[in-house]
Amino acid sequence: MSRRAFLRFLLCILWLSTMAAAQNGGELRFCLRAEPKTFDPQRVDDDSSLTIRYLTGGVLARVNRQTQALEPELAVSWKISKDSRQITFKLRHGVSFSDGSPFSAEDVAYTMNRLMEPELHSSTGDAFRSGNSKVETRILAPDKVVVRFPNAIIGLDRLFDQVAIISSRASNKEFAVLGPFMIAEHKAGSRVLLKRNPNYWKKDAQGRQLPYLDSIRLDIQANRDVEVLRFRRGELDLINSIDTEYYDRLAASSPEVVHDAGPSLDTEFLWFNQVGNAPIPAHKRAWFRSANFRRAVSAAINRDDLSRVVYHGHAQSAIGPVSPANKFWFNSKLKPEPYRPGIAVERLQKEGFRLQNGVLHDKDGNIVEFSIVTNAGNKSRERMAVLIQEDLGRIGIKVNVVTLDFPSLIERIAQKFNYEAAILGFQNVDLDPLGQMNIWLSSAEDHAWNPQQKVPETAWEAEMDRLMRLQASVSDPKKRKAAFDRVQEIVAEQAPFIYLINKNALSAVSTSVEGASPVILHPQTYWNAERLTVHSTAQARQ
Amino acid sequence: MNAARTLACVVLLLVCVVSFAAEWIAPSGYARQFRESPSSPPSRQHWLGTDEIGRDRFARVLYGTRISLLLAPAAALISTLLAAFVGGLAGYLGGIWLRLASGFTDLFLSLPWLFLLITVRALLPLNVSPLVSVLITFLILGLLGWAASARVLATSAQTLRSSDFVLQARAAGVRGFRVFLVHVLPNLKPVLYAQFWISIPVFILSEANLGILGLGVAEPLPSWGSLLREMEGMMSFRDEPWRLVPLLLLIVVMTSFQTLLSNESEEVAA
Lengths: 542, 270
Prior knowledge:
Order of helices and strands of chain B: HHHHHHHHHHHH
Structural class of chain A: alpha+beta
Oligomer: heterodimer
Structural class of chain B: mainly alpha
Helix content of chain B: 55-70%
Distance between the termini of chain A: 38 Å
Distance between the termini of chain B: 14 Å
């Protein structure tokens, strides 16, 4: 073979290998923290099943996790009626399920009818329940379908982000999907293997078929230490949500793999028990029902220290029920309560409290002492409680920190109301305040400080009820925003929840993964899974 | 006393003396937060560095050791006394009493003690100071930890019941509970001592288990359990070896106890 022929041969090999690499997106590997409870997209109620649904399910419209805007997917357009009771979808043409059967309006109608079946007990379906009558679906054309609800549903279109369309014809519905991946293998307790859906409808800007990845291997691994160790050894490509400590340790050795997407929607907060018949002393109930007392406690907490010491700077002082990360609904006029122990003492003095030898007494001479409960095993909350214990000690308040196992804690705070103050958090997945109705309505079960009130016990709670109902009944986003902004202001004035911090969305993504752009919304790292690629050479190198 | 036992005694004595002199030795209080230097490595100011919220780890090890070493024997005393009462008396009385006590002991031993501890602790009042909480924790351990010792004591008391000196006492007209108090109980002393010493490390480890679950001694009081929790998530022993000190101390103290106990048992057997 001449030298020229040999060079041609080499170039040819190089070109072929490049082409092969371009078509081979590799295998993405990460962990599920528990066995998925179901592969039925309509029965999903746990994180692991949610992950499978996100990766395999095709939806009519999808909230873009980066821009937070709703974007068309299987529906090219939709129209909501003025009374917010009806939505008409125009569907995409030429789409097929993974089993090759065509997608049509019949599948949408079938999906909605099944979703609303009471026997299914679907939490996804619950979001659409607006009255006792049935949800009606009408097929206007093979590519046009109308869904009509008994009563108005505000924010209707965004709810379809959670509705994976299922095939009306397929016998094994969990394996006929419209999403980028399909379930190929499930070994109970070990792993779930997803393979590329060969019939996926989406293509990239260059006309290449999506998804790029060949497969996704989801290992079931509850132990986070093991998960991090496996990631370090290169056996995993990403960790979707990672604790501060692990984040810092990974950052110390490989800063290029860790990502801090900024404040998430999750909030941590403290609240006092204001339940009228709670088994706590009357004088303590009187303190807890005083807005000045609650706001004094709020001003005495050094949130910057909570963020810096407990979360190593990967958190932001919380302002209210809505994280600044929620671009539309956050009330930007509000600011976090600054650390001002002097102001805290002034607020307490207004209520007749006085300091004697460094110990705070109320107007009747009772020593101000209360307990803060939180769930055992959550180190961040335990540490926050200890920092708050010290902060409040500086203004003469004695705090006893108590950690309880979670079932006992829930029993105390939600059933027996046998507690004084508690620290817990909300994991918000819903951007819309409709998802918070169960918290702010005074009659709601999750109105933690004083739940299930027959009539609102305070004027500000009555006002919050009115505003929450208003924002849930009008379709004009501006009016809804104005109402919910005022709710946030009332929360800041009355401090029924003393908001502490918003945790940052932390994740780890191997350098072998290309196209990852972690965001704050779930699923933080693989929200664009269809556009990710994994380089096997880098995988091996790591 | 052999060399190993002497060494164990010296180690235990040293640990006790140092931990009880914490006020003078520790550079700061166990609860003081140096928030500007959380998780710092050992330095001249903090010999074992600081914990995650900036508290001096050396001070916390000293105070935690003191709490565990002081209260574990107290819990052991409670459980041994209970065991002596239930097991010893049942063994002495025999018959239906022994069967009842054996059944009750077996039932108690079959309970999942960790869940029982968690449940009992969850039922207690919340608003108690850390000091009271630590007393409660060890009191619960003592009240729930008597069953195994009771079984041993019942067997020993049963043997003593038919011994010559008890028969002689009865023949001399000593009756009822007085026989148990004056003649049986004093002769159970070696077994009681052994059970007491065996229980101490068990209770230290039980508290450590509870502490690791976050259900032990209340903050800000330290204990070996809460100190061992710091090791959660350690990825390498080389990164921060000073965090292993509480574990090493626990191992040293437990080994010393076991060395002492094994020698004690050998002497009793002899």
